[in-house]
Write a structure and sequence with these properties.
Helix content is about 75%, strand content about 0%. It is an all-alpha fold. Helix 2 runs antiparallel to helix 9 and helix 3 packs antiparallel against helix 4 (about 85-95). The model has no long low-confidence stretch (mean pLDDT about 85).
C-alpha cells in the first residue's frame, strides 16, 4: 500500500509544483541527470550481479524488441490509411513503441511484485533503450529530415554515451572479477532514489493543453502502447512457453506508458512535439489504471 501512496504523492507533487510555479521550469532536467547518471546504474549494480542467467532470460530481450518492430508496421498501415505524413507517422512510432520501463516501470513493479524482481526489469529497460536508440532514431530521422539518411555514428554515439546502459554493461562485466558485497549498502541508498525522484520528474513533465484535436492519434497510440503491446508480449510468452516471474515482469513492463525520452527525441528531430507530449501525459495517467488490469490478467494466466 505504501508504494501506491508513494506513486500518487510524487506524481501529484510534481504537477502541483509545476502548476504553482514553485519550481524552475527545467528542474526535471537536473532530477533526470541524477537518475540517469547515478541512480539507474546503481540499480544495475544492485541486482544484475545476483541474476541467474538462463535461456529464458533471452525472452525479455526478444519480446521488448519485437513490440517495437510490430509498432513500426502497425503505425505504417494506420498512417497510410489515414493519409498522415511521414512526420506524424514517426511521432506515433516514437510514443507508441517504447515503454516507460524505468521511471514508471520500476516503481510499479516494486509496488505490485516487490523490488527483488527489478533485475528482470533492468533487462527490459536496457533492451527498450537499445530499441529506442536504433529503431526510434531511424524513425525520427526519416520523419524529421528531408534526406531521411540515417547516421550509424549518431546511433552508436547515443548507445555508448547512455549512462544506464554503461552501468548495465559494467555491472555484468565487473561482477565477474569483483565482489560487490561490501558496496551493497551504498548501491541500496542510490537505487532507493529512483522511484520518488522519477515519479516526481514525471509529474513535472506532464502536459495536457490542446488535446481535443489530437484525440484520434492519441487514442490509437495508447491502444497499441497500453493494450496491444502487452497482449503481443503475453502471446509470445505463451508461444515460447515462458512462465513464472520472467513472463510476468516482461509482460508488465510492456504494458507501461510511453517513455518520456521519446518527447526529447521528437523535439530534437522536429517531429510533432505537441502530439508526443500530450500522448505521453495521457498514457501515463491511463497507464496507472491499465497496468493494474494487466497485473490481474498476468496473475490469472501465469
Amino acid at each position: 500500500m505504501v508504494n501506491f501512496v508513494l506513486i500518487a504523492v510524487c506524481i501529484i507533487a510534481g504537477m502541483v509544483f509545476k502548476a504553482t510555479k514553485s519550481i524552475h521550469p527545467d528542474a526535471h532536467k537536473g532530477i533526470n541527470t541524477w537518475i540517469l547518471y547515478l541512480a539507474l546504474p546503481a540499480v544495475s549494480f544492485k541486482y544484475l550481479p545476483k541474476l541467474h542467467w538462463t535461456n529464458e532470460m533471452l525472452f525479455p530481450i526478444i519480446a521488448t524488441f519485437l513490440t517495437s518492430v510490430f509498432c513500426f508496421f502497425f503505425m505504417m498501415f494506420y498512417s497510410r490509411s489515414r493519409g498522415y505524413s511521414r512526420r506524424s507517422r514517426s511521432t506515433l512510432e516514437l510514443v507508441s513503441g517504447y515503454s516507460n520501463t524505468s521511471f514508471l516501470g520500476f516503481p510499479l513493479i516494486s509496488a505490485f511484485y516487490g523490488e527483488s524482481l527489478l533485475s528482470i526489469a533492468v533487462i527490459c529497460d536496457q533492451t527498450m533503450f537499445f530499441s529506442l536508440s536504433t529503431l526510434g532514431i531511424i524513425a525520427a530521422i526519416k520523419g524529421g529530415s528531408k534526406s531521411g539518411k540515417v547516421s550509424a555514428k549518431l546511433i552508436l554515439k547515443r548507445l555508448f554515451t547512455f549512462p544506464p546502459l554503461m552501468g548495465c554493461i559494467a555491472a555484468l562485466t565487473l561482477s565477474q572479477f569483483i565482489d560487490f558485497t561490501l558496496a551493497e549498502p551504498f548501491f541500496d541508498k542510490l537505487a532507493a532514489t529512483v522511484s520518488p525522484l522519477a515519479l516526481f520528474s514525471v509529474g513535472l513533465q506532464l502536459k495536457f493543453n490542446g488535446w481535443k484535436k489530437l484525440i484520434p492519434q492519441m487514442s490509437v497510440s495508447m491502444l497499441y502502447k497500453l493494450i496491444l503491446a502487452p497482449a503481443i508480449t503475453l502471446l509470445l510468452a505463451l508461444i515460447f512457453g515462458i512462465k513464472g516471474n520472467i513472463a510476468r515482469i516482461t509482460i508488465f513492463e510492456s504494458a507501461m506508458p510511453a517513455v518520456l525520452t521519446s518527447s526529447i527525441i521528437a523535439e530534437q528531430f522536429r517531429l510533432n512535439t505537441k502530439l508526443a507530449n500530450l500522448t505521453i501525459g495521457f498514457s501515463i495517467i491511463a497507464g496507472l489504471f491499465t497496468s493494474a488490469c494487466w497485473y490481474q490478467i498476468i496473475e490469472f494466466l501465469f
